[in-house]
Design a protein that fits this description.
six-stranded mixed sheet, FAD/NAD(P)-binding domain, binds flavin-adenine dinucleotide, 391 residues, alpha/beta, 26% strand
């Protein structure tokens, strides 16, 4: 289908919405982006971008900018929380040298996408909050200001609490997983190398990796607990609560936690993958369609993949609704598998029983010695998937 002259409104200027704007504009669509915030700013934290997400950035012409803004991850290291020494070190430069795993500050990622969107002549309209979405003909947005906006196609890239998802699927019932995550960045004055380190403890784990030329360290600290925190980064917590929860960790993680000021606190909820991704000429992508727990670091990567596939299917199909069906069929099985992998991952780091933990760590150690390539390649189905080559 020729996208020239087709008016597409994207709700949400997050990673998914901005990438979709670029991919659709490149195929000739008349795109605009509506964002509820007064500025395109991002919570100060890092994300990991794996090769499957980076492939989309490359196809959008942003490889150079992305590589300049990000750090290449050289290794993944698993360590016990209170002992010296590593349980497992996976050397990515040796065992996956053809793949580039990267760390990037979310704000830098959003900046590079937003700059490209503006350079492509796409209008990002700020302070535009969508109240509800009507998938009739034409599909229409009802804004909180009372205004109504119609288009040939509406794309809801409006994140976790998406009005577009609600219009297509009704309200869903996420449930608290019994885990909270703190996120913070601290100065890298311990000289943390270009690697992801995971400290594993009973009922908790801490992930850290460097950002911004190694000047910062990104921290994600996950704790199992009964009481829950709201599902939003706008909640900050007293850093002493974080330190108290991890006070039995060894010197290196504690020295990082000692530098934390004003961390964000996030309740981790499980949402079902949306069963309906499109109705009439309204569709959803990214977290709006499939919020995921952070334990495979794939939320933003999946949003990038969605953006590419949506544009490709629209350009390929004879009509919008056929294209949206093809988009859902191509994406849903994959994101369901990734979300399931993330759901199953946390407990592996959180083993409580001493003997079970010791046995699991021994198995990891042995695996790292005997079959490191197999350990690295177990997630090839995620990382080597390349939507820009038709996967
Ligand atoms: C602890 C943690 C760590 C993570 N780490 C990683 C990682 O390492 N790698 C990775 O790939 N992913 C990671 N993620 C997930 C990733 O951050 C998200 O999956 C990704 O940002 C989703 O992008 P999106 O564009 O779909 O939604 P969002 O980034 O949420 O963007 C939605 C946009 O829509 C706007 N919006 C919302 N509602 C409205 C409305 N009504 N009207 C107008 N605008 C609206 C919002 O303001 C926002 O700008 C992590 C998540 C968590 C919780």
């Amino acid at each position: 289908m020729q996208l020239n002259g087709i008016k597409i409104v994207i709700v949400g200027a997050g990673i998914g919405g901005l990438a979709a704007a670029l991919a659709l504009k490149a195929r000739g669509a008349d795109v605009s982006v509506l964002e509820q915030a007064e500025a395109i700013t991002e919570v100060g934290a890092g994300i990991q971008v794996s090769p499957n997400g980076a492939a989309v950035l490359t196809a959008l012409g942003l490889q150079k900018e992305f590589e300049a803004a990000s750090i290449r991850c050289r290794a993944v290291v698993l360590a016990d929380y209170n002992r010296r020494g590593e349980v497992l070190r996976l050397d990515l430069m040796r065992h996956a040298h053809d793949l580039r795993f990267a760390f990037v500050h979310r704000a830098d990622m959003i900046d590079l996408l937003a700059d490209a969107v503006r350079q492509a002549g796409i209008n990002i309209r700020l302070l535009q909050k969508v109240d509800s979405v009507e998938p009739g003909s034409p599909p229409t947005l009802r804004m909180t200001s009372g205004a109504r906006i119609s288009a040939d196609l509406i794309v809801g890239a409006d994140g976790l609490h998406s009005p577009a998802r609600k219009a297509l699927n009704g309200s869903s019932n996420p449930f608290f997983t019994g885990q909270v995550a703190w996120r913070a960045t601290v100065p890298n004055d311990i000289g943390l190398a270009d690697e992801a380190r995971v400290f594993m403890a009973p009922g908790r784990h801490l992930v850290c990796y460097p950002l911004r030329n190694g000047s910062l360290v990104n921290l994600v600290a996950v704790q199992e607990r009964r009481d829950w925190a709201a599902e939003s980064w706008s909640h900050s917590d007293d850093a002493d609560n974080l330190r108290a929860a991890f006070s039995d960790f060894s010197d290196l993680p504690m020295s990082l936690l000692g530098r934390v000021v004003d961390p964000g606190l996030w309740g981790l909820f499980r949402h079902p993958v949306a069963s309906c991704w499109h109705k009439g000429r309204v569709t959803i992508l990214g977290d709006a369609a499939h919020p995921t727990l952070p334990f495979m670091a794939q939320g933003a990567n999946m949003a990038l993949e969605d953006a590419w596939v949506l544009a490709e299917e629209l350009a390929r199909a004879p009509g919008i609704e056929i294209a949206l069906d093809a988009y859902q069929n191509r994406r849903r099985p994959r994101v369901e598998r990734v979300v399931a992998a993330a759901n199953g991952n946390a407990w592996k780091y959180h083993l409580r029983s001493g003997p079970v933990r010791a046995a699991a760590h021994m198995a990891l150690r042995l695996g790292g010695m005997v079959a490191p390539v197999r350990m690295v390649r177990q997630f090839d189905w995620i990382y080597r998937h390349d939507v820009t080559r038709g996967d």
